[in-house]
Amino acid sequence: MEWKQMPLGPLQTNAYILINTKKEAVIFDPGGEGASLNDWLQKQQITPVAILLTHAHFDHIGAVDEVRDEWSIDVYLHDNEKDWLSDGTKNGSSFFMSGQTITARPAEQLITEEGTLQIGDFTFSVFETPGHSPGSISFYHKETNTVFSGDALFAGSIGRTDLPGGSQEVLLQNIHDKLLELPENTQVACGHGPVTSIGKEMDSNPFLSGF
Q1: Neighbour count for residue 192 (Cβ, 10 Å)
Q2: How many Å separate Cα 183 from the centre of its chain?
Q3: What range does the record give for the signal peptide (predicted)?
Q4: CB-based contacts of 39: which residues, under 8 Å, 6+ apart?
Q5: What predicted TM-score, i.e. pTM, was given to this entire model?
Q6: 49-87 per-position pLDDT tens digit
Q7: What SS3 state is found at 142?
């Protein structure tokens, strides 16, 4: 399997397309530009089987309905944010988008606990990593040695915690207890910016030093 990073939407949020040998794919956080994403998938002859959301902030969900409808696939989201997709106040678009509200229909599949998530040939370990938002989750894909961390952990930084439901203490504890327990060579596919690794962040991330 392999994956592609594709910055999309108003804040150039990183969408990731994880592709298996049958050219099926799981899409993480399609933040916008749904027509362009669908067009690319069609040209590559890739068939999505699901959309996985690390959380439901507006910059991660802008293309959810357009992609979901094009391929008739389910959206997965943590239960703690089940009503955020349809609420511009909760997903933040009402505050940050100058009057434009970004919404989507509710998710078909709600994740309620940590554990193994199987979607066709794709297997993930799901970690609850709130702190940036109350329903933030990270998806670890052992086969590609990658954790799709959303806005929990970045290269040299962590997710902002000044939004509703945020807590720096909770976020740092979850990063320490869950993400930093992964193998040090695990790739961290972040919600914004470049890909990093667990080992690199353990060694050099100023937010994690001494925690």
Answers
A1: 18
A2: 20
A3: none
A4: none
A5: 0.97
A6: 999 999 999 999 999 999 999 999 999 999 999 999 999
A7: helix
DSSP annotation string for 143-181: GGTEEEEETSEETTEE----STT--HHHHHHHHHHTGGG
Distance of CA 100 to the CA centre of its chain: 22
The domain segmentation of the chain, as residue ranges, is 2-95+112-204
Q: Which residue in 73, 60, 70, 75 sits closest to 30, CA to CA?
A: 60
The residues near 195 (Cβ < 8 Å, ≥ 6 apart) are: 5, 155, 187, 188, 189
Comparing 97 with 43, which gets the higher pLDDT? 43
List pLDDT tens digits, range 107-124.
999 999 999 999 999 999
Cα–Cα–Cα angle for 101, 103, 108, nearest 5°?
A: 170
Contact 38, 46 (CB under 8 A): no
Q: What is the mean pLDDT of residues 149-165?
A: 96
Which amino acid does the sequence have at 58? F
**Residue 210's pLDDT is what?**
66
CATH for 2-95+112-204?
3.60.15.10
Dmax (CA) for the chain in angstroms is: 48
What does the alpha-carbon distance between residue 87 and residue 163 come to, in Å, rounded to a whole number?
15
